[in-house]
Write a structure and sequence with these properties.
The chain is α+β, with helices and mostly antiparallel strands. It is built from 3 helices and 12 strands. Helices cover about 15% and strands about 35% of the residues. About 5% of the residues have low confidence.
Length: about 190
């Protein structure tokens, strides 16, 4: 094969790959595991991303910020409990306004269910709260404390039993209306 024909074939291949990639919007899965931190998950019309999930130390400088804005009367974890944070990011990748959910649960391998403690977003800039996102808008919003912070996400705060260590993996379910499971993520723990 002549050099000229080889050159034409290479250019045609590059052009074909470029055209094939144009406008190709790939759907994201609805299930991810702990090895996929950062994977995008479609839950209804909104795409979610697990930034990080971990046990929180209420006495550390960084973690104490994530636990502010607790509802009045919320008891501190007992010696058999712990605070656990799930930091999420979301984006509306549709052409219409969409609302993020505020309905989540963690389930361990024994079927124990845990629900997030509702933090006050007026007090805690990291608190997750359901928001209506315009097309291409994200939660947390660009240039916010949560988006620029170490986790780059907003927190769902859970109070787990210490037994959760023995009942791994934990699964975060993103729920829709009527508690219908839209997507799941296996959490690091």
């Amino acid at each position: 094969m002549s050099v000229r024909r080889l050159w034409i074939a290479a250019c045609a291949l590059v052009l074909a790959l470029g055209v094939a990639a144009c406008g190709n919007k790939q759907a994201h899965p609805t299930v991810a595991d702990a090895n996929d931190d950062g994977a995008y998950i479609d839950a209804g019309p909104v795409t979610y991303q697990l930034q990080v999930s971990r046990e929180l130390n209420q006495y550390s400088t960084e973690d104490s910020q994530y636990i502010t804005g607790l509802p009045p009367g919320t008891a501190a974890p007992t010696p058999s409990q712990l605070w656990y944070g799930v930091f999420l990011w979301a984006e509306n990748q549709t052409s219409q306004p969409q609302t993020t959910t505020d309905n989540f649960e963690i389930v361990d391998t024994q079927g124990n269910r845990y629900y997030p403690v509702k933090l006050n977003p007026d007090v805690n800039p990291f608190a997750w709260s359901s928001q209506t996102l315009q097309p291409q808008q994200t939660e947390p919003g660009v240039d916010t404390v949560a988006s620029e912070g170490p986790t780059q996400g907003q927190i769902l705060l859970f109070k787990l039993n210490q037994s959760a260590f023995a009942n791994r993996p934990l699964t975060l379910y993103i729920l829709g209306s009527s508690d219908r499971r839209l997507a799941s993520i296996s959490l690091d723990f």
